[in-house]
Amino acid sequence: MATIFNNNVDCIIEILSKLSLNDREQCRRISHSWYWSANRLASIQQELYIIGHDRHHRCRKHSHIPQRREKIIIDDNNGGSTTELNTIYWPYPFIRYQCYCLILKRFPNLRTIGFESINHWNDHMIEELIINCPHLHSISFIQCYGVGQSRMHESNHINLTYNGWQRLIHSYGQQIHTLILKDCQIDERQLAIIVDGFRQLIRLDITDNRLEQATALRNLSPTIRSLSLGNHFGSEMAIHDYHNDIHYIPLSSIVSGSGCYSITELFVQGYLDNQFPRIVQMKQLQHLTIHFWRTLFDEHDSIQCLSSIRHLSQLQSLEIYHHNTHDTSLAMNKELLEILRGCPNLERLVFDSKNGFECPFDDRMFERMKLYCPKMTSLTINPGDFSTTNCSLQTLATFPHLKRLKLIDFPAINSEGILSLLKQSRTITDLIIQDCCYIDRPEQFIQSIIDDVHRIQDNNPLRRHLNVRISSTQTMYRFLSSKPEIHSIKLGGQNGDSFTFESHSFLLHLTQELFEQIL
């Protein structure tokens, strides 16, 4: 009987592991076996994320910058992510103390815990976290304003104090390797306590906080590898808001300490000034992401400051996002060429200008890129230019290692250039073309890609995966193949509806009438 019971429990645990935490809570009520199995699964769970409900639904200042969250691990067997399955969506922006304690007691072996939009924090809640989760290696607070000092001027609320931070450091200071404090209104004094106390940090994210110069970063632990900092400046948001204390990216504080020699991944956002060129001292830097703005008169010549990246010859990944340009005629062709020439080891490049630069990517620029960056495997450009023609696609097809290509708003390329790119390239497996060209005969274009993909895979058997996505404001075509033959085609209509057709041969005939009905 014991063997049968254990087998049943194993089966139930396997089922529960595929469900979200909310669904597991419902299954606990089925029977004693399900109740015991759910508790058993919770006792061995290592990740937990609690996301509160923001009742204000206000437009946040960083709404158009992607949130930097914990690394999401995709599980192909589940068809989803482990982060989603281990997330509790709480209906309020606070958790009552009793509920908070019960949640933590149910997950005693957590290694990673994250909170988002949970605003009420105090030293007692930190003490419960220490007691119930002694094995934590990663802690994340996103938009948890009670962690900072946003309400210290309100006598009716008690926030996390310096004593609470000292208790965190005493318990976790030598074991936490990932600490995310994003948009929590952390101040300079708290940052100094954090940097001095957590000496085993590998990743630290302190973006969008109440920091001025972040001088405490001079004392970063030599174990640090990934650092994110800086403030977002939305369109014309109030400049006197809590979050807008830093006007310039505080590179001087970083390069003045041990982080200058240990950081390999850097994410910064803000305005550029004459301290940014000191980034050349970071000789270990391999991944750099920059979100930057220019002031109205650009007193510090931000584009020239940006060009100092050309001295980082060891750089492997570079992402440049430019926001809120006042001079839409500004060009940086020369500076970008210098960056490409100085970074021969570059494997990934993202250039995204939200509102400004005259696009530096013409046909000649892609030819230079092939020469200067022969190791390029991933390329994303937004926007394009009318001077960028199908010749650029032919050049991109000859990149020896390019696997992923994403082009947005290139008005001069057309369907013939896309088909030619797919025919000639022997390396591209992911192609995304967005808002680039109008396809007047989409059904013939679909059939041409299906035929070409089959020929491509016949000529190159090692290329068993091809993902092509062509989208615009009205129509989207998506082709997926995980085998040498096309087996699934998805078309998106104007209202976002999707239609799936299954075919076990490489030919799929779409009549004009059927296609018009679908769209």
Structural features, described:
The protein has 519 residues and is α/β, with parallel strands linked by helices. Among the domains are: 44 residues; 156 residues, Alpha-Beta Horseshoe (Leucine-rich repeat, LRR (right-handed beta-alpha superhelix)); 66 residues, no CATH class. Helix content is 30%, strand content 19%. It contains 17 helices and 20 strands. It has an 18-stranded mixed sheet. The protein has a two-stranded antiparallel ribbon with strand order 2-3. Helix 11 links the parallel strand 11 and strand 12. Helix 1 crosses helix 3 and helix 14 packs parallel to helix 15.
Note the main attributes of this structure.
single chain; 519 residues; alpha/beta; Leucine-rich repeat, LRR (right-handed beta-alpha superhelix); 18-stranded mixed sheet; two-stranded antiparallel ribbon; 17 helices; 20 strands; 30% helix; globular; disordered C terminus; LRR_dom_sf
